[in-house]
Amino acid sequence: MLARLGVPAVSLLGLLGLWVVAAALTADPQVLPQPFALVGPFLAEMRAGALPYHLGQTLIRVAWAFALAMGLGLILGFAMGRNPRLDRWLDPWLVVFLNLPALVLIVLCYLWIGLNEIAAITAVTLNKVPNVTVTIREGARALSPDLDAMARVYRMSGRARLRHVLLPQLAPFIAAAARGGVAVIWKIVLVVEFLGRSSGIGFQIHLYFQLFEVGMVLVYALSFIAVMLAVEWLILQPWERRARRWRDA
Known about the structure:
Elements lengths: L1 H25 L12 H10 L1 H33 L1 H16 L2 H12 L3 H25 L3 H9 L4 H39 L4 H10 L3 H35 L1
């Protein structure tokens, strides 16, 4: 555990050192401030309540989009992986949405639905559903026919079959889709907020971009990155290792 945590910590310290050197070479805090110069603005935003509020708004949007994208992607991916005829019909749709730029979907959702939360979450969800579907489809195709036959021989109920046969095999694919989903979704959420919301980390970055305050852009960006790194290291990576454990045994 110590080695597992120590390597990322040393790596991040190296990145921090590179930032310090780059800031020193630039010698212009308006272009790239030193890391320690961000402590004061960070504490001021925390005391004012602005940073927790906008961080919370972004996390709510990420949570909603993640839940919807995973739910829809699981259903579609499993159905397409188990039904070749359905897969042939829906695969062209999947290819279209996989190659449709996120910016186009965001703009269209705002134009069609309006500048509201429903449009924002819909745009992010539609951007991620195809990726989740592809991953889960591959997992459904890889299900063992021998385990399927065993479940029929022992006349397992649908619930028992789902819990003891299907989910353990799909778990690594679900975990991979979840990790990739979070990594992509929060980035798209920031673009959605940048373009058409009045709250959130993306909105604040847009505000300080207009004022050309690089320090405040970094404060908000790094605060959210820190939260997502914590989610990645404390929740998603342990879950993925646990999901893969039965295959490695």
